[in-house]
Amino acid sequence: MSETPHRIYFTQVMHRRLFPVQYRFTYKVFSLLLDLDALDRVPSLLGTHKGFGLLRFAAEDHGPRDGSALRPWADQLLREHGIELAGGRIRLLCMPRVLGFGFNPLSLWYCEHADGQLRAVLAEVSNTFGDSHFYLLANGGKPLAWPVRDTASKCFYVSPLMEVAGEYRFRLAEPDEKLGVFIRQFHKDGRLELVATQSGAGEPLSNRAMWRALRRTPLMSFKVMVAIHWQALKIWLRGARYVPKPDSAHPKVT
After folding, report:
1. How far apart are CA 228 and CA 175, in angstroms?
2. Every domain of the chain and the residues it spans
3. Are 139 and 88 a contacting pair, CB within 8 Å?
């Protein structure tokens, strides 16, 4: 039997705010790296169809958010931005639903051409209000080198304690034996405002590995959502200014 094309990563997420309130926190999560063309080859513990399950990859949590097939949607989005994969692999880094509940603050779509070279990364950002946005990291369809380094203007409301302004700077290592995601957010005046990282070790996805992940981080999705609100409350109590959600619409992809 050939080795699974999917991987699981046991990681630590770190957020560090530098101003106007200095604050740092970490929490443990596990993430899956799934080949979108091989979802019929995931281990049995991970469900991929609608319904209740201990662990489930939910297509409706990503992309168009309507439960439709993600691969055709991603191909069309990339073509609209001048990027053709010619059938190359797309892998999605995300957290699964646990006991029917899931939330992904950040999912990463690694998009390769048929020649095996990376052409784009889609950084899918979600907030707790049910909104999402894609930052397209690409070079006009030309190959990208690892680690991927790119910038994007912040145009999506993520936190009620931060303005929708400034710039993200991404540094993404190739997801292999280890995972390394490094993002810096710069304020509109140029000062470094926030650092967010996710790092850890990975292995081929298996039922045994998923059971181990559940033992290490039970009820992970619930803990992530609670942690987001709890940490936000503590930052606000330390003096961070409340920023209301803007009414203006924004492009879905930038």
Report:
1. 25
2. 7-237
3. no
- Residue 43's SS3 state is coil
Q: What share of the chain is helix, strand, coil (3-state, %, to 5)?
A: 20, 35, 45
Q: What is the pLDDT of residues 193-214, one digit of tens each?
A: 999 999 999 999 999 999 999 9
Q: Which helix or strand (DSSP H or E) is residue 226 part of?
A: helix 220-237
Rounded to whole angstroms, the Cα distance separating 240 from 21 reads 6
**Residue indicated by tokens 């298996």:** 206
Q: Which residues of the chain have pLDDT under 50?
A: 1
- Residue among 171, 193, 189, 188 nearest 180 (CA): 171
- Answer whether the bond into residue 143 is a cis peptide, omega within 30°: no
Token pair belonging to 206: 């298996």
CA atoms of 203 and 182, how far apart (whole Å) = 20
Q: What is the dihedral of CA 186, 150, 68, 246, to 10 degrees?
A: 20
Q: What is the pLDDT of residue 74?
A: 98
Residue that the structure tokens 């699964």 belong to:
96
- Asked if residue 155 lies in contact with residue 254, where contact means CB atoms within 8 angstroms, the answer is yes
119: amino acid identity, one letter: R
Could you tell me the CA-to-CA distances from 206 to 60, 138, 188, 244 in Å, in that order?
23, 32, 44, 43
Provide the pLDDT for residue 48. 85
- What is the token pair recorded at 135? 């930052």
